[in-house]
Specification:
This protein is of the alpha+beta class. It has a single domain, classed as GMP Synthetase, Chain A, domain 3 (2-Layer Sandwich). Helices cover about 40% and strands about 20% of the residues. It contains 3 helices and 3 strands; from the N terminus they run αββαβα. The protein has a 3-stranded mixed β-sheet. The longest helix is centred in the middle third of the chain and has 18 residues. The termini are far apart. The model has no long low-confidence stretch (mean pLDDT about 80).
Length: about 90
């Protein structure tokens, strides 16, 4: 089993610049897992999937072939659902 990956400052900067160039924000980076958030307006599931696959291919080619890209889930912005969460009606 491999230990944690030690990323140099140069590698960290490289990952961040590649992610930013794809219209995403870097949320976290743990070992070979890179979590991103997609910037801009609403994107279809197909568009987000294609973007993340292209980003993952680019990172694998330029940084490390073991990198995997994940999308940060978007929280529920509906205030009413947030207030009613956990409330049961009898």
């Amino acid at each position: 089993m491999e230990g944690p990956v030690i990323l140099t400052d140069a590698t960290r900067g490289r990952i961040e610049s590649i992610v930013f160039g794809y219209g995403c924000d870097l949320v976290s980076r743990t070992n070979y897992h890179v979590t991103v958030g997609v910037r801009g307006g609403p994107h279809s599931v197909a568009d987000r999937g294609a973007l993340l696959l292209a980003l993952e291919r680019r990172l694998r080619a330029l940084v490390d072939p073991r990198i995997e890209v994940f999308l940060q889930p978007k929280g529920d912005a509906n205030a009413l659902r947030q207030k009613l969460r956990g409330v049961s009606v009898e």
